[in-house]
Predict the 3D structure of the following.
Amino acid sequence: ALTKRATFDGLNCQKIRGEGQLSTIVTGIQQLLLKSGRPSSAPGRATCNLVFCEQGSAIWWCNDNPYSYSLSSYGEIADGAIRIATNQQCIQASLNRGGGEEQKLSGQAFYKEGFNVIVGGC
């Protein structure tokens, strides 16, 4: 069955909650796409829920509505993370401890339904 997707309303690449590792965030996106159920959040301005945290990289979703809110699926959170992960402005190359290059990621995707997704650190 097809579920109605939330309406994307822009993004920024600010380090709201630090930085995550691009490759680890991709793993998180894959896990969210496979996860069943409907994520729910308590009311509040920026009431944020950690839905993925691995190796210092995180995906959060935040309810900005003044009432409890449920998403249709974890895929809606994955959608926000994908939008951040595919925006070149949100990716920064840096050197890791071994001297190799790694890609760091940070950003926040907003939706008209009153929630947002943050990619960063944990």
